[in-house]
User: Fold these one by one.
Assistant:
Number 1:
Amino acid sequence: MSRIPLTIIGGGVVGCAIADELSQSIDGIVLLEKNRRIPGENQSSRNSGVVHAGIYYNRQITPLKAELCPQGNKLLYEVCPALAVPIKRTGKLLMMTDQLSEEYVDDVRRVAVENGVPGVERISLTRARELEPNVEGIGALYVPSSGIVDAAALVKALSQRAQERGATLLPGNTVVEIKPHQGYFEFTTVTVGDENARTFETERLINAAGLYADEIARLVNGQSRYEIVPTRGESARFYHTRRPEMAMKGLNVYPAPYVYDSKTGEQLQVSLPEAHRLVAVGDAIKTVGIHLTPTFDEVGNIGSAVTIGPAKTVGIDKENYGDHLKSPCYFHERVRNFFPGLRVGDIELHQAGIMAVLKGHPDWIIERDARYSGMINLLGIDSPGLTACLSIARYVKELIS
Ligand SMILES: Cc1cc2nc3c(=O)[nH]c(=O)nc-3n(C[C@H](O)[C@H](O)[C@H](O)COP(=O)(O)OP(=O)(O)OC[C@H]3O[C@@H](n4cnc5c(N)ncnc54)[C@H](O)[C@@H]3O)c2cc1C
């Protein structure tokens, strides 16, 4: 049996971006994806599609996100037009509605400056309303480099270019077993529609299995202690063209970030230092909050549908997309402070995605396995993993060479 030089497990946006990047310098790359198609059902097809600027990620707590998000933002705006992937630098407003939210937003501005995010400024409500007429609050933070991207089109384009560059993509194949050996790995896959499992050998392995990356890491090294806490993010939507009070020009509109209890998912009203303490000990998770995001229409222009989300449920089954979904009232309650024109009746439920949040680690883990250095694990690639897919791929390339 001839050995595969490098195998990637997972054909989401990160696995495809890595295949695309590495296939420029490595021949014979194979990517295995358990979905029957790429793009398939995964985080990459069920997200908000926001191109994050890099304003939320504190260098001390989340150094990788702080570094790779602004880099990825820049790369996406460069690469997507060349790949005919719809992308738009819409800009974003973070609405402040009270003193506590002002404290959180001032911290966001400080972090944005530290991360070198361009053009971030605090603006008055009057100025915010010139940009987005129907917002409410005591002022806003304006972030011009935020935007939206068509995530499915990006996955498709990256997977196609990876194949053109010589990679082999094999959807419909689930990796079920991996045995590490001296200098190589033996792995077994099950193919959709074929009852016979097949075994292959590979010199190097990249684990980009999203929600299942912790389980893949343990298949190789039983001592790996990383654990993913599946966190469902549900979204709803409305059509802003239906009433004048909802009219939007097409910006991302966010509340101030906040923290939620890592066990119950309940929002916590705590000061910023206390929030940082709770996040550091793993008792709370910081979130960008439930926000309004414009979407593309069929021809790649900003359309009339606006999504609201994600509403989070912590610690559910990795495939539980549908039980006990939040109601339109829940979404209405979370946005009416900063977008008061909306009524409950305007809101319809849209979709749910499940995020690969890593227990006790707010940052991503991208590293070689502690025992088997031929394997690179990408663990807890939650948001802004879509934004940073290209910079993550370059980071992996550096790690591998
Ligand atoms: C609700 C929600 C909203 C989000 N919003 C944003 C946003 O606005 N902006 C942003 O930048 N990011 C956002 N994210 C995060 C972003 O979507 C993810 O970081 C990114 O999609 C992760 O990509 P991935 O390739 O690592 O994982 P995935 O897309 O989950 O892909 C992993 C793949 O591995 C495959 N796989 C797993 N196990 C196996 C196996 N044993 N064998 C073969 N294949 C396997 C799976 O089938 C899957 O296709 C959001 C995520 C969610 C869920």
Number 2:
Amino acid sequence: MEYNPDQVAEAFQCAAEENTLSPLRAEQTVSLPAEGDVWIAGDLHDHRRNFDKLLFAADLPNHPQRHLVLQEIVHGDHWDENGAEGSWETLLRAAELKCSYPHQVHFLLANHDLAQIHGEGIMKGGQSVCEAFNLGVKRDFAERTGLIQAAITEFLLSFPLAVRTSNGLFFSHSVPSDSEVPNYDYTVFTRPLTGADYKRRTGPVYQLIWGRRTTPPMVDQFLEKVGAQLIVTGHQPQETGFGINGERHLIIASDHSQGVFLRASLTEPLDIHVLLEGLRKFVAIDLPVDQPRS
Ligand SMILES: [Mn+2]
């Protein structure tokens, strides 16, 4: 498929602007209205088939009160023989989706996004996925690479840190690790960010999206501080598609065929058991035969 570089850059810029100027957004947090429902996917990592299934099942045009939350779209398995990786294409589809349904589509900043913004190494099989991503953009845009790279960076930087609901849900890519929770800078969700916020290890953005294996008592503490009942994250791989970490933390993954997404009401009272009933496996969704396959 041939892409027009100006149109591609424009889609990323449009989506970045919609992210930044959304009336649902205040600083780094998007607050969803108390009507309809929300569907959230875990890490997607360019799983194109799951992305197709999610969009097909969510049917946004016919459900104007449905919100869709996406995270960690980049860095997947579409590598060519020269070590170029093609996830910019799925990122573009997500940006176009935001431009088409600005009120319904939302993103969460993830650690792979931040690594790509900073151009620093996450390694996979001895190769830097960020460099491979850049090679993919270079392969497909040649002398217009600079334009596209700048637009992609602007788009990734426009992602909020959290999405929350009035019935007590809090979505973020991960949770700060145990040792970071007690002194965590919770103002990060409600103020403009500076370079220090993104800093490796010490920055609250970095701590939020790189945190792992947080124990249930520390998740409780985090939730008390942000004033939410339940948290749903991605980030930690889940072989069966999901895992529960105590009574208030659900972890989901959407980057393999056993992966899941979550559907939750924006109006009903929720607990972890209600959330579990809203999980749906991608394998359970059949695309119609005329649906384009990726
Ligand atoms: Mn992650």
